[in-house]
Amino acid sequence: MPDKELQTEEKIKEVARKIFQEKGFEGAKTRDIAKEAGINLALMNYYFRSKKALFEMIMMETVQDFFQMVFQILNKPDTSLMDKIDGFVNTYIETLKKNPEVPLFILSCVKSNGAEFQKKFSMFHMISELHFFKQFQELVKQGKVKNIHPAHFLMNLAGMIVFPFVASPMIKLVTQIPESEFDLLMDQRKKLVPMWLKDMLFETTLEKN
């Protein structure tokens, strides 16, 4: 594909990603995407056959990019459990600071078409095989961490990171904090969340295996 055509396609995807993540599939209008991308509808249809085709491409790329980091961090065989947690927390807080709409976008995709979503993303079947889970279960057997289901721990880990971004409009309204202070709080959570999770995991020692 010539450079100019590639640039046009990437521009459409960049605009579509922003609008789809803000408004969802139903709320997004192809004419709005075309207008913001600086092209006409005919040219947009030349690159992408339909709004659904464009949405599915954006959804695929968003989910793959988002979860690829999960696998890279949580599946490293040569890092400790706490190193994985530290890496997960830092990476995702930075990612969500730049893309705060992504969690709700992914959740809306799953909610609206869960079965189809699962078919498209076979990676979800691999989550239980991550080194993180095996490492966690081994430490439970050794009596080094509390005997809780690793899914509970992963839900708490993800929730502590994702919830502040999903609920940020309410948090800012209730606390009356400006955007700059909210970002500072999120940076502070890079240290606080792993500390809270250590307290959840370890009985009397902070041993990092």
UniProtKB/TrEMBL annotation:
Keyword annotations of the record: DNA-binding, Transcription, Transcription regulation
Domain HTH tetR-type per the UniProt entry, residue ranges: 6-66
GO terms for MF: DNA-binding transcription factor activity; transcription cis-regulatory region binding
Annotated region of DNA binding: 29-48
A Pfam family it matches: TetR_N
Domain of life: Bacteria
Keyword DNA-binding: yes
Protein name, per record: TetR/AcrR family transcriptional regulator
Record organism: Sandaracinomonas limnophila
